[in-house]
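Quick one, T. Sequence first:
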Amino acid sequence: MQSNDARMFLHTAVPTAAAGVIAVVAGAVLAGGKGALGAAFGTLLVILFMGLGLIVLQRTARSLPHLFQAMGLMLYTTQLLALAIVLAVFKDTTLFSVKAFGFALLATTLIWVAAQARAHMKAKILYVEPESTEERKPEPTGSAA
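Structure tokens:
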């Protein structure tokens, strides 16, 4: 993983983890231990899904830049569908509070997407390769009178 990829991951994962800690505390206060467990599971799931997606997207951008936008749209749609499937699978579980799980999943997903958008806006990523000084043609130095 390149340094700018790691920086992007950190700028998205840290706010998501902070929101997850808040969700765990809220789940513990409102629903006890099962609420805290549900919120923690939801947060870890979002960081795992979105983190893997970010890695896939960065690799696609390097190897197939012409597919970057389409891949991004497909990836986010797939991630949201996968999270919806996970919600459907765990809707009747008694292992943890499903409400705390769902709210943590929603909140941390929104935080991840917002943090990723902010990180992309703040990143200084060149979209045009600058001309090197060796390739630059000298400008004419004649005077026009």
